[in-house]
Design goal:
- The protein is of the alpha+beta class.
- It contains 4 helices and 7 strands; from the N terminus they run H-H-E-E-E-H-E-E-E-E-H.
- The chain has a single domain, classed as Protein Transport Mog1p, Chain A.
- 24% of the residues lie in helices and 30% in strands.
- A hairpin with a 4-residue loop joins strand 6 and strand 7.
- The protein is globular and about 45 Å long.
């Protein structure tokens, strides 16, 4: 099975492989023009990750290109098994654990020098959402380990959906270093609103 780090580093150059995986997408079937990846949780880059399940991702065409207008813009859906609720503090810890593992492992793989203790996450509940909908705004200070390793600040949103029948929780994560008024967010919001629980 391919390691996620290798997949993330080379996914943009393996378009045919990415297209072949589209048929396996259960959560993020669109946009089909964005590269696709899927892996089990906990991820290989964070073995101490506290949740089990699966994650599907869609990477914008310029995800790994620092000079691109959609650099580091992407979406993922995480299915957390046997999890019926998740608190704001738990989502913050989720993101810290996830990105410290991802950045640390990828930096080591690519021989980049970063300080994962500088990775921070701030999170707050989003206002003015429809009744029964839970979305969190987050600001993530991480590192661009898929490019030159320089610090990157991501604007992010995490939509939370709970399936009491299957005892699964779904996190719909969309992120970009661009302001939410930027055109890339139109696509990210379309992904966010288009997701429905299986």
């Amino acid at each position: 099975m391919r390691k996620i780090i290798a997949a993330l580093l080379f996914i943009t150059s393996i378009s045919s492989a990415a297209k072949s995986q589209d048929a396996k997408a259960e959560f993020l079937k669109e946009p089909s023009t964005w590269s696709f990846e899927s892996f089990p949780l906990p991820p290989v880059f964070s073995p101490d990750f506290p949740y089990k399940g699966v994650e599907e991702l869609r990477f914008s065409p310029g995800m790994f290109k620092k000079d691109s207008l959609d650099y580091f813009s992407y979406a993922f859906v995480a299915q957390l098994d046997n999890t019926t609720t998740i608190k704001q503090s738990e989502i913050k810890n989720y993101l810290l654990t996830y990105f410290k593992g991802l950045c640390g492992s990828t930096a080591k793989e690519r021989k980049l020098s970063i300080d994962t203790s500088q990775i921070t996450v701030s999170i707050e509940k989003k206002n003015n959402v429809p009744p029964g909908v839970t979305i969190y705004n987050a600001l993530l200070n991480i590192f661009g380990v898929f490019a030159d390793g320089a610090p990157v600040t991501l604007n992010a949103e995490i939509k939370v959906l709970n399936n009491i029948n299957t005892k699964n929780t779904y996190l719909v994560f969309v992120a970009s270093p661009h302001n939410k008024t930027d055109d890339i967010w139109k696509q990210l919001y379309k992904i966010q609103s288009g997701f429905t629980m299986p």
